[in-house]
Amino acid sequence: MAEEMRIILRNYGKIDPLNIDDYINAGGYEALKKARNMNQADLIAEVEKSGLRGRGGAAFNAGTKWGFSYNTPADQKYVVCNADEGEPGTYKDRTIMENDPQSVLEGMAICGYAIGATKGYIYCRGEYPYVVEILNQAISQAKEKGVLGDFDIEVRMGAGAYVCGEETALIESIEGNRGEPRFKPPFPGVSGLWGKPTVVNNVETLANIPAIVEKGGDWYNSIGASRYPGTKIVTLSGDVNNRTFFEVPTNTTIREVIYEFGGGIRDGKNFKAVQIGGTSGGFIPEAYLDTPIDADSMSAIGATLGSGAVFVMDETRDIVDVVTRIAKFFRHESCGKCTPCREGTNRMYEMMERFNAGTGNELDLDLFERLGRVMGKVCLCGLGQAAPAPVLTTIKHFRGDYEAKYL
Ligand SMILES: Cc1cc2nc3c(=O)[nH]c(=O)nc-3n(C[C@H](O)[C@H](O)[C@H](O)COP(=O)(O)O)c2cc1C
C-alpha cells in the first residue's frame, strides 16, 4: 500500500485510547492550552486561514462557521459533534472515536472556547453502543484531569435514522423531538439547539483542530488541494483488493486511491465504475480517474466527496441493479416531512424496479432526469436533494446499462 499522511490518525495504534495520560504524553491538550491563551477572534481567524472545510459532506469552511456563532450574542451557545455516521460504507468517524477519542473532545473544547460555549454534545450513531462507552470513559477521564475546564460534554445516542445525521434533524433529535430537518435559514450557527447559536461539526473536522491550533493555519493550508486543504480519511469498499481505510492528502487522485491504496481490482477483473461520497454520491467512469478527491474537483465532474466513502465496481457489476438498491435505501430513509422527497424517492424506486424487470423505456429515462432536477432544487434537505445523483450520473455515464434492459 502507498504511504499515508496521518494528521487526524496521528495517534492511531500508538496510544491506549482509554488512557488519557497516553494522549497527554503524546502532546494532547497542548493545543487547548495554546488556544485559551489566544484571543477568540484570532483563534477563529487561524482556523479559517487553515482552509479546513467540514468533513461531514457539505465542505463548509469550519472557521467561517465558528464565526457565525461567535458573532451571535446569546446567554448559552453549544458545540455539537456530529458522530451519526449513517452513510453506508463509511466508518472513519468510528475509527477516530475508537482510537483517539480525546482528540475529538479537545477539538470540541477549542471550538467551545472560540465561540463562547460551555456545553457540547456528541450525537453518536445508535449502532455504535461500544463507541458511546469509549466516549463516556474518555469524558470522565478528561473531567477528572480537569483538562476541559468549564466545558462540559455529554453523549447522546442517535435515533437510528439516516436523516438524523442532517444537522437540523440531529438538533431536533437531541431536543427529544422526531428527527426531521428544519427549514434553513436560520442556520444552526445562529439559531440551533434550543434556538441558541450552535456549531455542528463532524468528528473528522473536529479531530483536525488540535493539530491546526498547534502547528498553525498556514501549515495546514499548505497540505493537499489548495481549495480543500489537509487530509481526508477514505473508507474503501467494493471490488478492490484492500478494503480498508487510510488518510491521504486531498490532492490524491481517485486512481491512486483505487490502485495504490486499494491494490487494484480484485480477481484480475477490469474497472467499471466508482461511487464516491456515500449512497448519494455520483458514479464515475474510468475517464475521470485522474481527478483529485477534494470536494471542488469532485463537484467539477458532477460527483461529491461527501463522507469519503469510495465504493468500487468491477466490469461484472450490473449498474441498474446497484442503483435500484440505492433507490430503495432512499425510499426507506426519506423522513416524509417534505412532499418532493417523500413522493420523489418512491417514484424513483418504482422506475428503477421497472428497469430492473425489463419494462423500463426511453421515456422513463427522460422522466428520471426531470424528476431528479426538480428534487435537487425543491427538497427540504440534502437527503432528497442528493438522492437522484446515483440515477442521474449513471444515466449520463452508463446509459448503455439501462438500454440493455429494454432494447
Ligand atoms: C441526509 C443527511 C445525512 C447526513 N449525515 C451526516 C452524518 O452522518 N455525519 C456528519 O458529520 N454529517 C452528516 N450530514 C451533514 C450535516 O448536515 C452537516 O453538514 C455536518 O454535520 C456539518 O459538519 P462539518 O461542517 O464539520 O462537515 C448529513 C447531511 C444530510 C443531508
Helix-strand blueprint:
Elements: H1 20-25, H2 30-36, H3 40-50, H4 62-70, E1 78-83, H5 92-99, H6 101-115, E2 119-124, H7 129-145, E3 152-157, H8 167-174, E4 198-202, H9 203-215, H10 217-221, E5 224-225, E6 228-229, E7 231-238, E8 245-249, H11 254-261, E9 271-276, E10 283-284, H12 295-300, E11 309-314, H13 319-333, H14 339-356, H15 362-378, H16 382-386, H17 389-397, H18 399-406
Flavin mononucleotide binds next to strand 4 and helix 16.
What would a concise description of this structure say?
The chain has 407 residues and is α/β, with parallel strands linked by helices. It has helices at residues 20-25, 30-36, 40-50, 62-70, 92-99, 101-115, 129-145, 167-174, 203-215, 217-221, 254-261, 295-300, 319-333, 339-356, 362-378, 382-386, 389-397, 399-406, and strands spanning 78-83, 119-124, 152-157, 198-202, 224-225, 228-229, 231-238, 245-249, 271-276, 283-284, 309-314. The protein contains 18 helices and eleven strands.
Which features does this protein show?
407 residues, alpha/beta, Rossmann fold, Ubiquitin-like (UB roll), de novo design (two linked rop proteins), 5-stranded mixed beta sheet, 18 helices, 45% helix, globular, binds flavin mononucleotide
